[in-house]
Amino acid sequence: MHRHGGLFMNVVVVYASRYGSTKGIAESIAARLRERGLEAEARSVDSNPDPGAYDAVVLGSAVYLGRWMKEAAEFAERNRAALASRPAWLFSSGPLTLKDGVTVDDPDVVPTDIASLRDAIHPRDHRVFFGALDPGKLGFAQRAMRMLPAARAVLPEGDFRDWDAIGAWADGIAAAVKDRTS
Ligand SMILES: Cc1cc2nc3c(=O)[nH]c(=O)nc-3n(C[C@H](O)[C@H](O)[C@H](O)COP(=O)(O)O)c2cc1C
Question: What are phi and psi of 122, to 5 degrees?
Fold first, then answer.
């Protein structure tokens, strides 16, 4: 365990997830941080964790129609001071597929919320990860939306989460958090 002033370094991975795939990413990040010797837990925004009780925060949201879930944006707004005053990392669980030549850094892919969050919180990083879509889980509105020819995002069925990319990103967070303790 990494100690800081006699205390274990404790990280919270807060997530907003409608159908569970972002929750899975958050849990995998927390597990990797624990493997790297930190204390870490994944918590839903709905349980309203206090970022002020942790040494570092990871905050992620599923992306719908180009935006973070309202719950995640509101969590960031509510906890702005605590997030700005400790190391914070953001992630978005968004695209399912990308057109040729488009990358996850493309402005069309990065949710519109991120620019203002960068200004408000000064996160160490923001990353977009591929998500997952199980049509059987969708509610009526989402199902209808998915059928719209004008839908901006292409929404194929499947699990496109890139566990290697997620794990590597978590390793970088673990290294940065531990670096502060030395
Ligand atoms: C109706 C609908 C709209 C979506 N819109 C977007 C979008 O605008 N941008 C994006 O990157 N992903 C979009 N997605 C993909 C979701 O972000 C992806 O399925 C994500 O992994 C869902 O996370 P969750 O299971 O935690 O809710 C959309 C999915 C659905 C079903």
Answer: 55, 60
Give the ranges where the chain is alpha helix by DSSP (H): 21-35, 70-78, 80-84, 113-121, 140-147, 163-179
Q: Which pLDDT tens digit goes with each residue over 140-175? A: 888 888 887 656 557 888 999 999 999 999 999 999
Q: What is the pLDDT of residues 57-95, one digit of tens each?
A: 999 999 998 999 999 999 999 999 999 999 999 999 999
Ligand 1 mutation pick, 96, 98, 113, max ligand atoms within 8 A of CB: 96
Task: Please report the domains of the chain, with CATH numbers, ordered by start residue.
Answer: 3-179 (3.40.50.360)
Q: Are 119 and 113 in contact (CB under 8 A)?
A: no
In the predicted structure, residue 180 carries a pLDDT above the cut 90: no
Task: Name the one residue in this structure whose structure tokens are 């925060």.
Answer: 57
* Cα 107 to Cα 118: distance, rounded to the nearest angstrom: 14
Determine the atom of ligand 1 nearest the C-alpha atom of 146.
1
